[in-house]
UniProtKB/TrEMBL annotation:
Residues 49-263 form the SsuA/THI5-like domain. Its main location: periplasm. It comes from Ramlibacter albus. It is found in: Periplasm. GO terms for biological process: alkanesulfonate transmembrane transport. GO terms for cellular component: periplasmic space. Coiled coil: none annotated. Keywords: Signal. Belongs to the bacterial solute-binding protein SsuA/TauA family. This is ABC transporter substrate-binding protein.
């Protein structure tokens, strides 16, 4: 018994030394987490955009990884980014393009695991507010609802408008959130059009409250809008946090990929049983209709495609003067190391 124990120890030591010589990151089976209590910020947690986060939370996957994650929900992604920059959040569940935007301001944040492989954002016009709508140019001078100014919904609206020659300052952006407040804002005439996520947009669409003019809720629609794959929701944090807390980042990625794996085979009834009742916005059937519409937009394995990062940079640079494509180092905006290990662990 003693000899076998020594043999195991000798083998383990030799393996670790070999890994060190090769420069391969060492991942121990029960690696000690540098930080177990995590403050996580998200903008609009009840949206399908962040469904993998909710699933991993509700099913206890963060706890399984030894993490105590406290989630703060903000009105939109720009607000959750502010929480990270201000120091009140360790990690953000938010849009990947924020990593590019922030690098253009000399602040380095990095995606550690991907949750969405399409933005799931639809842009619609209110037939009541703009009854004679003929094209995007008709939105000049109008009020456009977004989850929060500066969020990914704002980015998609900017992209769509810019292609019709409309600049961001040619319209008024109004933050309306991602739930009941967004429905009310459009139906009451506070805004003329809206760029938002599901289930809100499907609910408005099915009731005839919006006419969809741009749609990234499917992979096909995303390709039509962006010209390529467009990564969406991810977990991101300061590059310095990643360097100092690799085991914690691995645990976060593991929890998310575990959730993604569960979602691959989950049926509508499984989703209904798992998410909080408030997510349904009072209409279970429409919630499920929304889920079916965006299902393929959910990431499969946590990995962010290199081509997707290039698409995001191209899109941002097309309408954001501060983003210079030749000045951005895309390799510093994301890492697939944690996603790769999580994918192997859960066979995602």
């Amino acid at each position: 018994m003693k000899n076998s124990t020594l043999t195991r120890r000798t083998f383990t030591t030799a393996a670790l030394c070999g890994a060190a010589v090769l420069g391969v990151p060492i991942v121990r089976a029960q690696a000690k987490l540098e930080k177990t209590k995590i403050a996580l910020a998200v903008g609009g947690k009840g949206a399908f955009y962040y469904l993998p986060l909710t699933i991993s939370e509700q099913l206890g996957y963060f706890r399984n990884e030894g993490l105590d994650v406290e989630i703060s929900d903000f009105a939109g992604g720009a607000r959750s980014l502010q929480a990270l920059v201000g120091g009140s959040a360790d990690v953000v569940a938010g849009a990947y393009e924020h990593t590019i935007n922030m690098q253009s301001k000399n602040q380095f944040i990095q995606s550690i695991v991907l949750m969405g492989r399409a933005p799931q954002i639809a842009f619609g016009v209110s037939p009541k507010a703009v009854p004679n709508y003929k094209g995007v140019a008709d939105l000049r001078g109008k009020k456009i609802g977004v989850t929060a100014p500066g969020s990914s919904t704002n980015m998609v609206a900017n992209l769509v408008l810019s292609r019709a020659g409309i600049k961001a300052n040619d319209v008024s952006y109004v933050g309306v959130g991602t739930s009941a407040g967004a429905l009310t804002a459009l139906r009451s005439g506070q805004i003329d059009a809206m760029s938002n996520v599901d289930p809100v947009m499907t609910m408005l669409e099915q009731k005839g409250d919006v006419k969809i003019i741009s749609d990234t809720r499917t992979l096909k629609g995303t390709h039509e809008v962006f010209g390529g794959p467009m990564p969406a929701a991810c977990l991101y944090t300061h590059a310095e946090f990643v360097q100092k807390n690799p085991n914690t980042c691995q645990a976060l990625a593991n929890a998310i990929v575990h959730g993604l794996k569960w979602l691959q085979t989950a049926g509508p009834s499984d989703i209904i049983k798992t998410v909080p009742e408030s997510y349904l916005l009072g209409d279970r059937a429409l919630y499920l209709a929304s889920f079916n519409k965006v299902r393929e937009a959910i990431a499969l394995d946590g990995m962010l495609p290199e081509e997707g990062a290039k698409t995001a940079l191209r899109a941002l640079a097309s309408f954001e003067p501060s983003v210079k494509a030749d000045k951005i180092e895309l390799s510093k905006t994301y890492t697939n190391e944690f996603g790769r290990r999580a994918k192997e662990k859960f066979k995602a």
